[in-house]
């Protein structure tokens, strides 16, 4: 699958500028609906790097506040703040209504966006996120997110060392250019003190909000039951048990994408094609 680099720019938001990536669409008619694609809790806009080139219309994906090129933006964080930033992106680009897709935490942001700003959303597609998640008692963010959050305080001597760190992640057993671009974009600083752009405070605040916040729960409860939910068949660490183990409990129009885990439902060929088809 060909990797197409997006055009990167920035739009004004409270506290500074939000970085966005834009893909023009797959030779689409001029009236093809634009897609707003929202990434997960420690991710960046290149999480959509395999999906976006397969979508007929234009795709815009922000780096959420505290991540990627938006890593130095101050709070407030939380799903409502991210939803407001996403509306600012639509305003800056002159997009009245968009198909809104959210992966992982991005699904919660997308749901809150649809709940707060229904006139801006033509259709909602949730990708392994956005429905309530149950965590066992006593499980904290470091345990739940594992290496994804552990790396935020780590230092790496080179990009190759960072690649090696990610290649040990069980969900990235098949390494390719799109994953390499995604992880490389996350690094900042200079060798041998490279580190993630992700703001740990933003991650912790958002983790609490998506699990315990009143606004994400209200947004989920307001979703039409025919809202599309694409579920990864395997888990965050490629476990046989998915992040959402019981499709019926999600309460939406669930399609399980077999053979995908929480990451490869976007960054794997089968997952990217399934997500792109749901957006088309």
Task: Give your account of this protein's structure.
The structure is a single chain. The protein has helices at 79-93, 105-116, 141-145, 147-150, 159-167, 177-185, 200-212, 214-222, 247-250, 264-267, 269-279; strands at 7-13, 16-23, 35-38, 59-62, 98-103, 121-127, 187-188, 195-196, 228-232, 253-257. It has 280 residues and is α/β, with parallel strands linked by helices. The chain has one domain (7-136, 200-279): Rossmann fold. Helix 2 (105-116) links the parallel strand 5 and strand 6 (121-127). Helix 1 crosses helix 2, helix 2 (105-116) crosses helix 8 (214-222) and helix 7 (200-212) crosses helix 8 (214-222). The mean pLDDT is 93. This is Pimeloyl-ACP methyl ester carboxylesterase.
In short:
The protein has 280 residues and is an alpha/beta fold. The chain has 11 helices and 10 strands.
Topology:
Blueprint: E1 7-13, E2 16-23, E3 35-38, E4 59-62, H1 79-93, E5 98-103, H2 105-116, E6 121-127, H3 141-145, H4 147-150, H5 159-167, H6 177-185, E7 187-188, E8 195-196, H7 200-212, H8 214-222, E9 228-232, H9 247-250, E10 253-257, H10 264-267, H11 269-279
Parallel strand pairs: 3-4, 3-5, 5-6, 6-9, 9-10
Antiparallel strand pairs: 1-2, 2-4, 7-8
Protein name: Pimeloyl-ACP methyl ester carboxylesterase
InterPro entries: AB_hydrolase_1 (IPR000073), AB_hydrolase_fold (IPR029058), AB_hydrolase_sf (IPR050266)
Organism: Actinophytocola algeriensis
